[in-house]
Design goal:
Helix 4 packs parallel to helix 16, helix 8 crosses helix 11 (207-222) and helix 15 (302-309) packs across helix 17 (338-364). With 380 residues, this protein is an all-alpha fold. Helices cover 72% and strands 0% of the residues.
Length: 380
């Protein structure tokens, strides 16, 4: 009898919800800014990365126990290769058709997004293939690839020797990033090699910070135990903090305290500032505590499940749709009738659902495309 982890529809629905929020944020419409970070100073990106890590821990941790560590490592490497092929495909589209359309239509949203490519196309292409140049919208898959390549060692270490050391090193790296570790290493690398890609064009997500979120999710997923039940003395402050951050976000907007950069740094998305991590942790505590009740009282959100079951395919599709929208309709700075923006969003979500349905139809016919997540019947 297989001990592979069974698919949990609520996790698929959560990933589907994260994809919906990311699409709302990345589509250049009048709804982009208001829908960003709707639950406080925490975004869909944190939820998506954490959920992906948690699922990776469940799936590949089970694979390691069932088939051995070499099989687990091979599965991680296979997955990283698929992610890399997805990234190369998106880069090819961005550096050819999207770049031409943006220049031809004089759409600053595209030319700004691909700024370094227009400045130095040769260096941009080579560096992008090496995952050293990552334009906006195309900078999260490289982070995933790096984390997937690192994960076999992390999981092996955690399963064999315990997770205390892994978690401690991860926390120290996150803390060092708050003091500029990534920038310091970049400057040293530039001085030694003459590397010409600007730091801002290497991707918005600071890997030394975001690895901590991934490691935490991987650890929780690899545990052969259910998520903990939190005591009231932790649940009460988590509720108060999450509620306070929610009110703060919707009272002041995306910038927590305009004109005071120190506060912005504490809540910074790209380096996962400490107050932001606390916001995410408080939402996590509430969601885990309320999860069983929500499963009982809410109807199953089948469209969200569909999107979440095919999250990699849908994620890539949402990037493609956002790029074409930028190339034809412009950025959020372009004033359009609200009906046009609503139609753009409706078309985008219809396209995402169509992609998810097409992938599942192909699966049922026996053909498994490279973009299916998770891959292989062993993770069902």
């Amino acid at each position: 009898m297989s001990n592979a982890p069974q698919r949990r529809w609520e996790l698929d629905a959560l990933r589907g919800l994260m994809l919906v929020l990311m699409t709302l944020t990345h589509m250049p419409t009048m709804y982009s800014l208001p829908s960003g970070q709707p639950f406080g100073f925490v975004s869909a990106a944190e939820g998506f990365v954490f959920l992906s890590a948690y699922m990776a821990g469940r799936v590949y941790g089970g694979r390691a126990r069932r088939d051995g560590l070499p099989a687990m490592q091979a599965a991680f490497h296979s997955r990283a290769l698929k992610l890399y092929l997805c990234q190369v495909g998106l880069l090819l589209l961005a550096f050819t058709l999207i770049a031409w359309l943006g220049a031809y239509n004089q759409q600053g949203g595209v030319t700004g997004l691909l700024e370094f490519f227009f400045i130095d196309p040769g260096t941009a292409v080579v560096a992008a293939v090496l995952l050293l140049h990552n334009p906006p919208l195309l900078d999260i898959l490289p982070l995933y690839i790096a984390l997937m390549l690192l994960s076999p060692w992390l999981l092996r270490r955690g399963l064999q020797r315990g997770w205390n050391g892994v978690l401690a090193v991860s926390a120290l790296l996150w803390l060092a990033q708050q003091w500029g570790l990534g920038q310091a290493l970049y400057e040293g690398f530039v001085q030694g090699t003459g590397f010409s890609v600007p730091y801002k064009d290497m991707g918005a997500f600071h890997g030394f910070a975001w690895q901590a979120l991934w490691v935490a999710g991987l650890w929780l997923g690899a545990r052969q135990q259910p998520l903990p039940r939190f005591p009231w003395w932790l649940l009460v402050p988590a509720t108060l903090y999450a509620a306070g951050m929610l009110l703060w976000r919707h009272m002041v907007g995306q910038d927590p305290m305009p004109g005071v950069p120190a506060v912005g740094q504490l809540l910074d998305k790209w380096s996962l500032g400490p107050l932001r991590v606390l916001n995410f942790a408080s939402v996590f505590v509430l969601l885990v505590s309320a999860g069983p009740w929500l499963k009982r009282v809410l109807p199953r959100p089948l469209p969200l499940e569909l999107l979440g079951r095919n999250s990699l395919s849908v994620f890539c599709a949402h990037v493609v749709i956002a790029l074409f929208t930028l190339a034809f309709f412009g950025s959020t700075e372009v004033v359009r009738p609200w009906t046009t923006d609503a139609a753009l969003l409706a078309s985008a979500f219809a396209g995402l659902l169509a992609v998810a349905m097409a992938v599942e139809t192909l699966e049922r016919t026996g053909w498994r495309p490279a973009l299916v997540w998770p891959s292989g019947p062993q993770v069902r």
